[in-house]
Design brief:
The protein is mainly α. Helices cover about 80% and strands about 0% of the residues.
Length: about 475
Amino acid sequence: MAKSSKNKSEQMYHEAIAKLDQDLIETYYKRGEIYLKLKDYSAAIEDFDTVIQLDPDNIETYLIRGYTYGKTKNFDQEISDYTEAIRLAPELAKAYRSRGYAYGIIREYPQAIADFTQAIELDPNYVQGYYNRACIYQLLEDYQAAITDFNQVISLEPEHVKAYEHRGNIYQVLADYTQVIANFTEVIRHNTDHTQAYQARGEANFKLKYYRQAIIDYSQAILLDPQDWQSIYHQGHSYYQLQDYTNALANYSEVIRLQPSMVEVYLDQGNVCGKLKDFSGAIASYTKAIELNPQNPDAYYHRGNAHNFLQEYYQAIEDYTECLILNPDYGNAYYNRGVNYSCIGQYYQAIDNYNTAISMMPPSPAIYNNRGIAYQKLEEYQKAIADYTQAIFFDPNYTDAYYNRGLVYFIQEKSSKSLKNLNLAAKLWHKQGKTKRAQQTLDKIQQLYDNPTQATLENASSNSDIVCS
């Protein structure tokens, strides 16, 4: 009887100790959780250490301590804890998922993918496993694999906003702008204050030339963040494409207020000023761009064009020359410098520039036509005719070349060829809706041929426009 009573007492003692240990485990674990929430990671780890000392097989504690180590960027120890959890519970999907995430942080991508895949095999409906693996595929630029996994995430959890966002970003890289719009529309449906979603959808609408819709999206992004200069800037581009230059200029001016050192916006502002025929304003904008970056050939090139439109030919030539010093392969700068040399009567220099432009640019009827004019001015008529003929070869509807060739044939007293070319020019201009030019050509024919005794070489000189490209 005494022995039985003693055994019962010992059992009660051990049960009490076990209960005390269990209470201690729960106390340390819960306190560790509180420390973790308070971001006191060292105290949390200390409590989790105590739990593991009391219960070396406590899987959840290895998982939470591993997570806490991750917060301290001690990734080796984090991975070690997840590995121990896997040893204790090899069928536990979230342990593989957690270790895979840690491998991803340290850019051990193959190991990360292997762990996420194992987690998915253990739990085929594991949304976070698919999502994390998709993110790794996205980082590795394996976009089709990433899309497949994000599709699975959305199939399992249709309200998973981040999956739509990531998938939209991938489609943006793949230039599938219709899908970009579809995905970011879903993001916006779930979160109407998602600025980046409006930005991305606006960009996709712009790429698809849905400029008005792009303006609406950028407007919403700007409403959410009035300092969002990128949306203001791209909205300006949309206005520009719609030829709403006044609003485009307002947007670019606001971007300059927010980003006064941004070279590109001064170039855009200058281009808009040019469209509004404010060439002095354009020159001021390009000059500011040059002040910010004196090594930018585009700024000199466009300022040269503005000087040309103001008939400031010498300043234009200086700018084109500076552009070519910075970029000797800038074909349009050679062409436009040739145009301006022609405008000041320096035809040999003009021809030299046209020659260089022809050698480095795609075939252009305008260059041959303008070089023909320079040869005509130098009375090198055969070369002029050859250039006008070449311009017509590249564009059979290039009316200026027919007109100019007709004038040269008149000078050479080849009346039949002259009349044929001039009449053809008049018909083409009429067909192209340029009735004033057509009538001027008919008047020129009458002037040249109805009063041949009064016709002079000056009457026969080309009056075609020479315009900067």
